């Protein structure tokens, strides 16, 4: 996996999986297990993690180093 490749935690027929560039990265029984693994991959990639709900829509999104709008310094 290359730096900057986003991770999507998505439901499938057998539970949950993570996808990077459309390729499956593991199979998990619960969303919690898949999300935890997905966050680790996103942190390593310095990318975004998209957590999808059962309906397929993104319900949570977090950035790990590839934030297009980083917070301003408040010195």
What does this structure look like?
The chain has 75 residues and is α+β, with helices and mostly antiparallel strands. It has one domain. The protein is built from one helix and five strands. The chain has one helix at residues 31-45; strands spanning 7-12, 15-20, 23-28, 48-52, 58-63. The chain starts with 6 loop residues before the first strand and ends in a 12-residue tail after the last strand. The model has no long low-confidence stretch (mean pLDDT 88).
What is this structure's SSE topology?
Elements: E1 7-12, E2 15-20, E3 23-28, H1 31-45, E4 48-52, E5 58-63
Parallel strand pairs: 1-4
Antiparallel strand pairs: 1-2, 2-3, 4-5
Q: What's the shape?
A: globular
Biggest β-sheet description: 5 strands, mixed
Helix content: 10-25%
Poorly predicted runs of 5 or more residues:
none
Strand content: 35-45%
Radius of gyration: 13 Å
Secondary-structure element order, as H and E?
EEEHEE
Structural class of the helix and strand makeup?
A: alpha+beta
Distance between termini? 36 Å
Domain count: 1
Q: How many beta-strand segments?
A: 5
Tally of contiguous helical segments: 1
With strands numbered from the N-terminus, the spatial order across the biggest sheet is 3-2-1-4-5
Query: Kindly state the mean pLDDT as a whole number?
Result: 88
């Amino acid at each position: 996996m290359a730096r900057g490749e986003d991770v999507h935690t998505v439901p499938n027929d057998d539970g949950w999986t993570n996808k990077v560039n459309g390729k499956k990265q593991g199979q998990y029984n619960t969303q919690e297990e898949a999300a935890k693994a997905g966050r680790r991959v996103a942190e390593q990639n310095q990318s975004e993690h998209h957590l999808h709900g059962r309906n397929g829509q993104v319900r949570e999104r977090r950035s790990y180093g590839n934030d297009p709008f980083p917070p301003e310094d408040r010195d």
